[in-house]
Design a protein that fits this description.
The complex is a heterodimer of chains A (about 325) and B (about 290). With about 325 residues, chain A is mostly helical. Chain A has 15 helices and two strands. Chain A is globular and about 55 Å long. Chain A starts with 7 loop residues before the first helix and ends with a helix. Chain B has one domain. Chain B contains twelve helices and four strands, in the order αααααβββααααβααα. A two-stranded antiparallel ribbon of chain B has the order 1-4. In chain B, strands 2-3 form a two-stranded antiparallel ribbon. The radius of gyration of chain B is 19 Å and the shape is globular. Classes of the chains: A mainly alpha (about 325), B mainly alpha (about 290).
Chain lengths: ~325, ~290
């Protein structure tokens, strides 16, 4: 039992000293495979990949907070909600259809919201940070839910088909989503992945890791903890907003459930499933989660029970997640040679 | 005036139930350091099982007047489900909090579908017995006597729990284990047993709370996830790990909601979260919490 209680921090410390597969290449490789997917996969499978791209982007941001900085947000779905509702409001209320404008607006909106919430939240760590972010998430959810006139209440708001690169795309919904939008979202995923890699490898990323390992020591050597944490929070929120925009365009709807706390719980689930100690782990977790959920839903209506069971087993037996376990196996073999 | 009394009575009734669940959450957090997201599921479990138990008892010819003790008994019995769950939790006590949150989140998901399987997706109500005790008149407001009974029962449980923790030998051992598990074990305490006991009691508090609330409303699938957030609000306002905090927090949340519902229904939950946010900013440890981190 005792060897199961390795905490992530010490595991990560061991891993950094070993030559490791470059996390960015894993992610880009995955994206490259996905770019070839339309050649072989059915439209249904491609439609399933779109939520994965949305979640994958959101989780890149989420993990900057969770994996790199060591702050567990249990209200991160809030920013997916902000992104989705920004897209909904702009397309269906203001008639702004340019997807680029939607993305920028979603990024700005979630960044601004995060600046305010983050300023209040990042003073706290551990369970208090989790609870405070959960409270803010639910604050936003009940606003969405109760203010029917502005947000459409439980009906949500429609998201119209956007223009990509200023061009209108013909064809049915599925043709649009699995064709131009799929590639567009995938490219965005790759670009944001590279950007996040640069962020984690920069001195700023180093500051964040130092804060995670030992905040007191980091402060002593001159890391400005509050500012760094706040910056991480805002960046992760921007990724969340962009992910939420993609989800909303995919479903054509922004609804309050996006911001509900169980949705935040699912995000944490994905991150831990893939392994929050690695760069591409959470994105892999999102992929496995989306595919697994779809598969389980197709065989039983009691899919929550199965997913919950998977989560319990995962936490007990595979705490480092899929990618963490694979890496541990690889490095054990390398070490044994 | 009558409106005010109405709000106070309604709010206190809600607070009484909320306190039970929050007390369970506090007890488990205080001793095991686990924030139990599944506390809402225990509450819903108590509610569903309460309906079933009373239904069976009525069929066996129980006079409706006895439904109150039957409910409490049902809540206590089904609370034993805490024992096997604690066995699973035992594997992760010394892990990072994020895992503990996640594993209880997993239980929450599982319970959700277990309810759907056992009791169906449509809300279930308990008929005919809610008003078995008649109604009382307080300052010109009619209130079901049952509501007053629940408030009294909740207070009695609060006192009993306080006495147990403060005055009995086992209570002292529980507090010592909460303070320092290793030291307590060093002195010969069987911490595993204490943990199992505490988690089961925490679970029972939730199931009894659910069983007591159900005659006045309905048992539904949403009640678990909704209540989690509310009891979170209670413990954050009152301070994590503090029983007194649970009591005061439950009263604040209960009254706040009742007031908001009668004044501005849109602000029902919004007002609660606003209090939470304000408390966390002004007093991060909550009203009665110990200052940590």
């Amino acid at each position: 039992m005792s060897n199961q209680s390795i905490d992530i921090a010490s595991l990560a410390a061991v891993r950094r000293t070993l030559p490791q597969p470059n996390g960015l290449w894993v992610l880009l490789g995955l994206i490259a495979v996905m770019a070839l997917l339309p050649l072989v996969a059915s439209p249904y499978a491609l439609l399933l990949m779109l939520p994965f791209i949305g979640y994958g982007i959101a989780l890149l941001g989420f993990n900057l907070l969770f994996g790199t900085t060591g702050l567990l947000s249990f209200g991160h779905a809030l920013f997916l909600g902000v992104g989705a509702y920004t897209a909904a409001a702009l397309t269906s209320k203001f008639g702004i259809l340019s997807f680029e404008v939607l993305l920028i607006a979603a990024a700005l909106a979630s960044g601004l919201v995060a600046l305010v919430i983050g300023a209040l939240c990042v003073r706290y760590t551990r369970i208090f940070f989790g609870m405070l972010t959960l409270a803010f998430g639910m604050l936003f959810h009940s606003f969405l839910f109760k203010f029917y006139n502005i947000t459409g209440g439980d009906q949500g708001m429609r998201v119209l088909r956007p223009l990509l690169l200023g061009m209108e795309w013909r064809g049915g919904k599925t043709v649009f989503l699995t064709g131009p939008f799929y590639y567009y979202a995938l490219l965005l995923f790759a670009l944001l992945g590279v950007a996040m890699w640069r962020i984690t490898q920069s001195p700023f990323g180093l500051h964040l890791r130092a804060i995670r390992e030992n905040a007191g020591k980091a402060a002593y050597v001159g890391v400005q903890i509050f500012r760094m944490r706040l910056a991480a929070f805002v960046i992760s929120a921007i990724y969340g907003g962009i992910g939420g925009t993609i989800l909303a365009v995919t479903t054509g709807l922004a609804d309050p459930e996006l911001a509900y706390w169980t949705h935040s719980g699912n995000l944490v689930f994905m991150a831990v499933l893939g392994g929050s100690g690695t760069f591409s782990g959470p994105a892999i977790g999102a992929l496995v989660f989306v595919v697994l959920q779809d598969f389980v839903m197709s065989i039983t209506q009691y899919w929550r029970f199965v997913m919950g069971g998977v989560l319990v087993l995962l936490v007990v037996f595979v705490p480092q997640g899929l990618s963490g376990t694979i890496e541990a196996l690889v490095s054990r073999r390398a070490g044994g040679r | 005036m009558t409106e005010l009394v109405d709000v106070i009575l309604g709010g206190t009734f809600h607070a009484a139930v909320l306190f039970l669940v929050a007390a369970g959450l506090q007890l488990v957090f205080g001793v095991q350091k686990i924030v139990n997201l599944a506390c809402g599921s225990f509450y819903a479990l108590g509610a569903y099982f309460g309906i079933t138990a009373v239904g069976i008892a009525l069929k066996l010819g129980m006079p409706p007047v006895l439904f109150f003790p039957v409910l409490i008994l049902a809540g206590l019995t089904i609370g034993l489900v805490g024992l096997p769950i604690e066995r699973v939790l035992r594997t992760i006590y010394r892990r990072d909090e994020s895992y503990q949150l996640l594993i209880t989140f997993g239980f929450l998901l599982m319970f959700q579908d277990a309810f759907r399987y056992l009791w169906g997706a449509t809300p279930r109500t308990m008929d005919n017995v809610y008003l078995a005790y008649g109604t009382a008149h307080i300052l010109g407001v009619r209130v079901p006597t049952y509501n007053l009974l629940v408030i009294a029962a909740s207070l009695a449980i609060a006192v009993a729990l306080g006495l147990f923790l403060e005055r009995t030998k086992t209570g002292r051992i529980v507090r010592a284990t909460a303070e320092n598990r290793d030291m307590a074990e060093g002195l010969g305490v069987n911490a595993s047993k204490i943990f199992a006991l505490v988690f089961t009691v925490g679970c029972m508090l939730g199931t009894v709370g659910g069983a007591l609330v159900v005659p006045s409303g309905a048992a539904s699938l949403d009640m678990a996830v909704d209540l989690v957030v509310e009891s979170f609000a209670v413990v954050v306002i009152g301070g994590l790990g503090s029983m007194r905090g649970a009591l005061v927090g439950a009263l604040i949340v209960g009254l706040m909601r009742a007031a908001a519902i009668s004044l501005m229904p849109e602000l029902e939950m919004l007002s609660v979260y606003l209090v939470v946010v304000v408390v966390l900013i002004v007093r991060p440890a909550g009203l009665f919490g110990k200052a940590t981190a």
